[in-house]
Write a structure and sequence with these properties.
By secondary structure, this protein is of the alpha+beta class. The protein contains ten helices and six strands, in the order αβαααααααβββαββα. It has helices spanning about 5-10, 35-45, 55-70, 80, 85-90, 95-115, 120-140, 150-170, 215-230, 260-270, and strands spanning about 25-30, 175-180, 195-200, 200-205, 240-245, 250-255. A six-stranded mixed β-sheet has the order 1-6-5-4-3-2, sandwiched between helices. A hairpin with a 4-residue loop joins β5 (about 240-245) and β6 (about 250-255). α3 packs across α7. The relative contact order is 0.18. The model is unreliable at about 275-280 (pLDDT under 50).
Length: about 280
């Protein structure tokens, strides 16, 4: 059975000791110097008082960051594009009209106040859409979401993370795609997967972990990169860097792809059953 990139990367024993791509190879910097330690500490403090799970917070941060980027670059249907996966789930459940109400509320707020939106509106409506994301990805729909509203701590913590993540793209890293799905590059071991964001020179995975990247995180990123090399033309540009952006820590972890061993790439290609595919 083929697995998603994330599930494949987290299998016990799938990597050699120390991992295929050591986190120590990544250069570490702040996502933005605009946000001080007190601002970042408030994010962590918010987790103790919120009612939204850390995993769901991460999903909300991901989708709202995508929506703001698409709006910034004046893409057609910016919020619908960002929330593509939840919309798929809503259609499958017959809830498309309800989901579109949430999409419209987010879209109207961003259109009017992109640089200083009312995050209570954004977070509340995005939260309702997260249940459809899990329905697509694992077949589960949490009915309790409809009767739950993120509290002030959730909204504060999530809004701070979105501000940090969005600042990275607002400050100049040219945006290319969100939710890139590697058409034509799936292998004997890997099924449908999508990474978070690509720019003109970087593949970026958005994480909201309280910890530094693990070998599983960097392996997941490496798998995305290898799939991108083998993908059909159309979505994947010439990548010079792979990056993990963690707004919870205000940290950016970056690696020049020239520093990835060719032996490692070939070994992983064999592992995922893709060595017979031609690169772009």
């Amino acid at each position: 059975m083929r697995l998603s990139v994330k599930k494949f990367a987290t299998q016990p024993g799938i990597q050699p000791r120390g991992g295929f791509l050591s986190p120590k190879l990544f250069e570490v910097s702040n996502v933005s110097d605009e946000f001080d330690e007190a601002f970042v500490k408030a994010i962590e403090d918010s987790y103790g008082s919120g009612i939204v799970s850390p995993a769901t917070r991460g999903v909300i941060v991901d989708y709202l960051t995508r929506a703001m980027i698409h709006t910034l670059y004046q893409d057609k249907n910016p919020v619908g594009t960002a929330f593509r996966i939840p919309l798929m789930g809503a259609r499958a459940r017959g809830d498309e009209s309800l989901a579109m109400e949430h999409i419209k509320a987010i879209e109207e707020e961003l259109a009017a106040n992109l640089d200083n939106p009312d995050y209570s509106i954004l977070v509340t409506h995005a939260y309702q859409l997260t249940a459809y994301d899990s329905f697509v990805r694992c077949g589960l729909y949490d009915e309790t979401v409809k009767d739950t509203t993120p509290n002030e701590a959730d909204i504060d913590g999530i809004s701070r993370m979105v501000k940090i993540a969005y600042s990275y793209f607002k400050e100049g890293d040219d945006f290319l795609h969100t939710g890139i799905s590697f058409l034509g590059a799936y292998t004997k071991q890997l099924a449908a997967s999508d990474c978070d964001i690509t720019t003109l020179d970087s593949l970026i995975d958005l994480k909201t972990s309280k910890s530094k990247p693990s070998a599983q995180d960097t392996f997941q990123l490496l798998l995305y990169y290898i799939l991108g090399l083998q993908e059909k033309p159309g979505q994947f540009g010439g990548m010079d860097y792979i990056k993990i952006l963690n707004p919870r820590l205000n940290k950016l972890y970056s690696l020049d792809v020239d520093d990835i061993s060719q032996d490692v790439i070939e070994e992983v290609e064999r592992l995922i059953g893709s060595s017979e595919l031609s690169r772009l």
